[in-house]
């Protein structure tokens, strides 16, 4: 009887721990680096029941989940179908869920202090690559997705990380389409998805935070609104030093001189139109206004010429920065 009791108690503890790991992690994904995931995470952390703990500051679990897909597929190939003819246990969905629980447990291991155990941890990643796998891994977890005007992201990325303009425009468009397709195909999970625009968070912080706290079922009376209002923005492109390095310790204050929503203001007309050509459909799909493209054949021919000659312009520049600064400006996001 004592043995049965101990086994039952162990099962209860294990199940309670598993459920706690699931409920105490919210994922925060940005369409690309430079979107503002750090800023949003720092804002949410002004709540007494939230931590954005390290050392796993950005996990990249969802973006690298294609490796888990391959692992699951290969594992299933070696399992004899006669072991579980109905596929009740031995199926890809359950295997993926189990892998997700393991990742959640790993995230929660960052809670090294007793007072952190019952807090919500924000797990952030600045990319939405492989977003389609999210609910396969984490079917019960909340997901906040942050987007930002691609022109401001690219202008910031060019200054901070020497991004290639054409590639960044395509990456942003691909990310936006991934997000919209994901939301459209998971209407049954609408209560677990919150889509935020960085512009809304920056311009109307109180309203955006109220929406976030409601989404996460957090008591607004336990939120430090003064701290949120006075919060600086870490990792801004305005903190880039003469060597092209971004400072994550130095924070930019929200003053009249700090204008993160006007990063692309100095772009030429040609550059604005190039963005519209590469990413305009995605921008309009999510509600950003972009420059209207000219209808002439000459303009279309010019854009196609830029596309065809892109490797000739981008590869030498990529080699230059790889050798000079060890920056890989064409890496995938």
Backbone structural class: alpha/beta
Estimate the global geometry from the Cα principal axes.
Answer: globular
Binned, the helix content reads 40-55%
Mean pLDDT over all positions: 88
Biggest sheet features = 5 strands, parallel
The span between the termini is 56 Å
Number of helices, where a helix is a run of at least 4 consecutive DSSP H or I residues: 13
Number of DSSP E strands: 7
List segments where confidence is low: pLDDT < 50 over at least 5 consecutive residues: 3-19
Series of H and E elements: HEHEHHEHEHHEHHHEEHHH
What share of the residues does DSSP label as strand, in percent? 5-15%
**Strand order in space, largest sheet:** 2-3-1-4-5
Rounded to an integer in angstroms, the radius of gyration calculated over CA atoms is 23 Å
Notes on the protein architecture:
- 50% of the residues lie in helices and 9% in strands.
- It has a five-stranded parallel sheet, with helices on both faces.
- With 333 residues, it is α/β, with parallel strands linked by helices.
Quickly describe the structure.
By secondary structure, the chain is of the alpha/beta class. The chain has 13 helices and seven strands.
Show the helix and strand layout:
Blueprint: H1 2-23, E1 25-30, H2 37-44, E2 50-51, H3 65-78, H4 92-108, E3 120-125, H5 134-137, E4 142-147, H6 150-161, H7 165-185, E5 193-197, H8 198-203, H9 205-215, H10 225-229, E6 233-234, E7 251-252, H11 269-286, H12 297-308, H13 310-324
Parallel strand pairs: 1-3, 1-4, 2-3, 4-5
Antiparallel strand pairs: 6-7
Helix pairs in contact: 3-4, 6-7, 7-11
